[in-house]
Write a structure and sequence with these properties.
With about 325 residues, the chain is of the alpha/beta class. The protein is about 25% helix and about 20% strand. The chain has a six-stranded mixed sheet. The chain has a five-stranded antiparallel sheet with strand order 3-2-1-4-5, covered by helices on one side. A two-stranded antiparallel sheet has the order 6-7. Helix 3 crosses helix 7. The longest helix is centred in the middle third of the chain and has 13 residues. The protein is globular, with a radius of gyration of 21 Å. The relative contact order is 0.12. The chain binds guanosine-5'-triphosphate, magnesium ion and zinc ion (ZN). The site of magnesium ion has 5 residues, from helix 6.
Length: about 325
């Protein structure tokens, strides 16, 4: 019942709930949100005379934007009134806290299988920042993959590899030249039918370049194709989802200035399992691992098991420092 086209769009069987099946049999049309504008959304696939752009009408205009469809959402569209649709339950949501304190979380994308955390091998390389991105993905139960671009512009990747291995034992890491399709092949195992990957990272690291290389066409503007305005403005200004020729979907995001991690304590703890494991042996159950006696984490730092910088980042994320 689910067409190849929908599988190419990242549809995964686990979403195929009974009610959805019923609506589909009644003629409902399943589409995926590829871009979101002020009061309109783009969807795919677009077949025949179906519009690829849907205007938000009625009650959709009255709900806060956080409750409206976001990129990666699945919609079940009414066959008789194509502006009327159900928003299907999300498997997960990639989100971050708003840069403005007090504001609600910013929802980035929905129904994601893996998150390519993109950094270059050059000056922007920063383990602390990568750690926050990994926590952000882990918080949404999305598999993080570290993608290090511009490997062609550096002579020696060994120190980076060493640092990454130390900080992210369990996270897969790929070094690539985002402009070279051969080199990007190693990322294809995360994609393919039924899979959706979101790209996040600072501006200029090569997210859109990577999307273009995977697509085999220059669909997304990159810094080299548009003159840089010198104000540090981001080249990509809106999120968009793209179907790859080999199946699967990649979501390009504007560069993130500073990661605002949605601080779920459990996600932070998940990303720092090594520290958590040691902490079980601290004398006090509420040990803050700073100057308490018999702190197993401090002992771990002294014996070189844990990096001081890593502990500081952990405490910072937990708001304890
Ligand atoms: N040599 C080399 N250049 C790269 C690589 N990846 C990206 N670039 C260049 O880096 C510049 C920025 O790339 P973009 O793809 O626009 O970066 P972005 O992450 O999409 O940036 P924003 O849209 O602002 O977030 C462009 O000039 C690319 O050609 C790489 O792996 N090797
Ligand atoms: Mg871009
Ligand atoms: Zn302790």
């Amino acid at each position: 019942m689910i067409s190849d086209e929908l599988l190419d769009l990242g549809w995964s069987q686990s979403q195929d709930a009974l009610t959805i099946g019923m609506k589909l049999r009644a003629g409902g049309i399943l589409k995926r949100v590829t871009a979101v504008h002020k009061t309109e959304i783009d969807v795919a696939p677009s077949q025949g005379k179906d519009e690829s752009r849907i205007s938000l009408t009625g009650s959709w205009l009255n709900v806060p934007s956080s409750e409206r469809p976001i990129v990666g959402d699945w919609l079940l569209i009414d066959p008789l009134d194509k502006t009327s649709f159900d928003l299907l339950p999300r498997r997960n949501i990639l989100q971050r806290s708003s840069p403005d304190p007090g504001k609600t979380n910013q929802l980035m994308a929905a129904n994601i299988d893996a998150c390519f955390i993109v950094s270059s091998c050059l000056e922007d390389f920063n383990i602390d920042r990568l750690e926050r991105y990994v926590a952000l993905a882990a918080g949404a139960e999305i598999r993080p993959v570290l993608v290090l671009t511009k490997s062609d512009l550096t002579d020696n990747t060994s120190p980076l590899k060493r640092d990454l291995k130390k900080a992210f034992e369990e996270v897969e890491t790929c070094f690539i030249n985002a402009l070279d399709s051969q080199s990007c092949q190693q990322l294809m195992k995360f994609l393919g039918r039924g899979k959706t990957v979101a790209l996040i990272g600072s501006s200029g690291v090569g997210k859109s370049s990577l999307v273009n290389t995977m697509l085999g066409q220059d669909k997304q503007a990159t810094r080299s194709t548009r003159s840089f305005d010198g104000k540090g403005r981001h080249t990509t200004t809106a999120r968009s989802a793209h179907v790859l020729p080999s199946g699967g979907v990649v979501i390009d995001n504007p560069g993130i200035r500073e990661v605002q991690v949605v601080e779920t304590t459990s996600s932070i703890k998940d990303s720092f399992k090594d520290i958590e494991k040691l902490a079980k042996d601290c004398r006090f159950s509420d040990c803050r691992h700073q100057s308490e006696p018999d702190c197993a984490v401090q002992a771990g730092i002294e014996s070189g098991l844990i990096d001081m910088r890593r502990l500081e980042n952990y405490l910072k994320l937990l708001g304890q420092k």
